[in-house]
Amino acid sequence: MKTMTCIEDLRQLASRKVPRAFFDYVEAGSYAEETLRANRTDFEQIKFSQRVLVDASNRDLSTTIAGEPAKLPFALAPIGLCGMQHGDGEILACRAAHEAGIPFCLSTMSICSIEDVAESVDKPFWFQVYVMKDRGFTRSLIDRAIAAKCSALVLTVDLQVLGQRHCDIRNGMTVPPELKLKNLLDIMTKPAWALSVLHGKRKSFGNLAGYVPDQGNINSLSYWIANQFDPALTWKDVEWIKGIWPGTLILKGIFNVADARIAAQTGAAAMVVSNHGGRQLDGACSAISVLPHIADAVGSDIEIMFDSGIRSGQDVMRALALGARSCLIGRAYVYGLGAGGRKGVLRAIDILRRELDVTMALTGVNRVEAIGRQVIADGKAYF
User: Fold this and answer.
1) Beta strands of 58-156 (E only): which ranges?
2) Backbone dihedral angles phi then psi of residue 7, each to the nearest 5 degrees
3) What angle do CA 161, 223, 127 make, to 5 degrees?
4) For the chain: N or C, fewer Cβ within 10 A?
5) Rounded to whole angstroms, what are the CA distances from 122 to 2, 25, 51?
């Protein structure tokens, strides 16, 4: 890989190496993408207060995330179809996360299965689950995560119906890609990607193998998936999951104070303040604008994590300053995966680490736990 100085460099390289349908799948927000844009715009409006003549020579970026020690205050978020960004993408990303000393979360909609990843790494990882209409299938996923010794279960609660992403429809995005002329021409210009996927363990959703009728039929598979998200999902389902899962439970997709107060009483170890990266409810507020209100309301009752919109170490710092204990990194690491496999993910993690480290130094902070709203400029700090 050539010199990659920032996440945008990785993004640009991934856009050239990954077929358009799968790159657009990562990029897209739902509908008019108002929420997707707000996630970035609102981050950029949050300014830091620089401090000088503060001894920042002994900085420590380590912390704990949902009870697990971590060398950095972020984990790799559950992202579907990583194995379509690079062959065996989930395995490579998990290895990179473990090498960097941070958690990795496998998505239900991964290409490599729970078992594929478990047999390919030496440390436990997290597993993300949806409550689907077929509760027996959901139960089987949890049982498989238990058997794989996953150290945390991340329950996504904001996908009871699927927000439409226009580019997926325009691109005819399917897994595996349909052999249409447009797809073939695109893939022919990306031989390294094609070779990596060809040599990968799987070409379709590994966790669904054996559960979906006629999985070899792309249209049948797509129909089954689209109809499994359950609009009848309620807090009782969280209780049901809690009764099955014996370990650490994290609720992902909390987005207002009322829901946060309920979530704090469920017995979950942590919640993730998230709007699904702008991929669900379009026209909603940015996730970072909601975070401080939730942190003020329940931050003393439950551990708060954050995702949606992070593209830099400065963004991680902003989220920690506004009340998160840690963050989940999504698109930023997937760009690295598409750009260069395991090495690309490691590069993305290192870029974020270095940016966070420098930002801590320039705001006079030595420890992650000391990051608070004092690092945010309110206008008064300069006068």
Assistant:
1) 63-65, 68-70, 74-76, 105-106, 126-129, 152-156
2) -60, -35
3) 60
4) C
5) 30, 30, 42
Contact 129, 145 (CB under 8 A): yes
Catalytic residue positions? 276
Evaluate whether 140 touches 116 at the Cβ level (below 8 Å): no
Query: Average model confidence (pLDDT) for the chain?
Result: 93
Which strands form 152-156's sheet, in the order they lie side by side?
A: 74-76, 326-329, 303-306, 270-273, 248-254, 152-156, 126-129, 105-106
**Pairing assessment for the beta strands 126-129 and 152-156 based on DSSP bridges:** parallel
- Which pair of structure tokens corresponds to residue 288? 């970072």
The structure tokens 């760009």 sit at 335
Q: Which amino acid is at 379?
A: G
Q: Are 39 and 273 in contact (CB under 8 A)?
A: no
In tens, the pLDDT along 237-261 reads: 999 999 999 999 999 999 999 999 9
List 272's β-bridge partners, or say none.
Answer: 252, 305
Q: How far apart are CA 4 and CA 336, in angstroms?
A: 10
Counting Cα atoms < 13 Å in the Cβ hemisphere of 341 gives: 12
- Domain residue extents for the chain: 7-382
Residues in Cβ contact with 112 at an 8 Å cutoff, skipping those fewer than 6 apart:
82, 83, 88, 89, 90, 91, 106, 120, 200, 201, 202, 206
d(CA 320, CA 150): 26
Which phi and psi (to 5°) does residue 105 adopt?
Answer: -115, 125
The CATH topology of domain 7-382 is TIM Barrel (3.20.20)
Three-state SS string over 263-281 comes to: HCCCCCCEEEECCHHHCCC
With 0-12 CB in 10 A as exposed, 13-18 as middle and 19+ as buried, what is 289? middle
375 φ, ψ (degrees, to nearest 5): -85, -5
For residue 156, name the pLDDT band (cuts at 50, 70, 90).
very high
Measured in whole angstroms, how far is the alpha carbon of residue 42 from the centre of its chain? Answer: 19
Strands (E), the chain: 63-65, 68-70, 74-76, 105-106, 126-129, 152-156, 248-254, 270-273, 303-306, 326-329
